[in-house]
Amino acid sequence: SRLFLAPMAGYTDAPFRALCAEQGASLCYAEMVSAEAIHRRSDRTLRLLDRFPGERRVGHQIFASSPAAAASAVRAIHRLAPTVIDLNCGCSVPKVLKGGCGAALLREPGLVGRLVRAMRDETDLPVSVKLRLGWDERSITFLECAAEAVRAGAAAVALHPRTRSQGFGGRSRWPALAELKAAVPVPVFGSGDLFTAADALAMADETGVDAVMIARGALGNPFIFAEIRALLEGRELRVGARERLETALRHLAME
To answer: Least CB-packed of 84, 154, 181, 246 within 10 Å?
Structure first.
């Protein structure tokens, strides 16, 4: 299936990923981690990459502004054998932006390419990037950033079609996903305003993305993956209160 759990700091830890995988997510991303912290061998940061028992497919996402730190982080992550290693180019948390990472990279498409190249040189695992539209309305750079990433060897590009300045306000601009899909020769993953199973199918139909990445829509509702699968099969799935409560208690026990 092409239903992915997006990386969310503070949320997509091993227990939550286990619940989402159980409900039908085919690839779950761990929490975003600092390449610099991994480069400095922070045990606390590396623990964020722990798998749940039996986890087969997992994506690890780093944020970085230094090609050297990105390369060092990938060397460490490579040993964990994830399914994919992703470069975050969309986080707008101030402490991430201050280091020139996350959405700050949207203003430097060339640096995006250099970071991807440094990562690709250290692993034979797929490397991808996750973008926003741009820094703000006057700086829409997702196509340039994607082109640089693909030239440097990125195997896929994910896009949350909002600008950094939008945060999570307003509506995400799904037509940009179709524009990106037409512009790059690699798979495109779509994120943004996916809160119901119908939303996920609508995004896939309207934009042609190769996979959908559920983020906030999965918080408190890992069942969204099972609901999407049911809708794809022409069924409607209704999750009852008892199952929700039992899942919540099981999640609590796993933490």
So the answer is: 246
Residue 127 in contact with residue 155, Cβ under 8 Å?
yes
Mean pLDDT of 58-69: 97
* pLDDT over threshold 80, residue 255: no
**Residue in 20, 28, 89, 91 annotated catalytic:** 91
The model scores a pTM over 0.85: yes
pLDDT confidence tier of residue 202, bands split at 50, 70 and 90:
very high
- The DSSP annotation for 132-164 comes to ESEEETTEE-HHHHHHHHHHTT-SEEEEE-S-T
Nearest to 155 by CA among 204, 203, 86: 86
101 in catalytic set: no
